[in-house]
């Protein structure tokens, strides 16, 4: 199989572009995970959940976050469950 230098160069250039895009995706994920220490530094990590607000991922603590913050999330089954009033137990 004969490949000229131009074809090899183009293939390598395309691979580099793909790797840069993948690297950017991973950087954004790392920044998102690091943000939990800024947004919820008083929360237990075990309680935190990733939900979406306006189609963007956010950290939410259903135990400590206020009702308005939960109402602002994109609705799903978990959010609906969190909004239900809890019954008192004796």
What does this structure look like?
The chain is mostly helical. The chain folds into 2 domains: about 1-40; about 45-85, no CATH class. About 50% of the residues lie in helices and about 10% in strands. Strands 1-2 form a two-stranded antiparallel ribbon. A hairpin with a 2-residue loop joins strand 1 and strand 2. The longest helix has about 35 residues, at about 5-40. It is elongated, with a radius of gyration of 22 Å.
Characteristics:
2 strands; mainly alpha; 90 residues
Task: Describe the protein's topology.
Blueprint: H1 5-39, E1 49-53, E2 56-60, H2 67-71, H3 77-83
Antiparallel strand pairs: 1-2
Termini gap: 79 Å
Judging from the principal axes of the Cα atoms, what is the shape? elongated
Number of helices: 3
Q: How many individual domains?
A: 2
Rg calculated over all Cα atoms: 22 Å
Q: How would you classify the helix and strand content by structural class? A: mainly alpha
Strand arrangement within the widest β-sheet reads: 1-2
pLDDT < 50 runs, ≥5 residues: none
Q: What summary fits the major beta sheet? A: 2 strands, antiparallel
Share in β-strands: 5-15%
The H-and-E topology, N to C, reads as HEEHH
Mean pLDDT: 90
Extended strand count: 2
- What share of the residues lie within helices? 40-55%
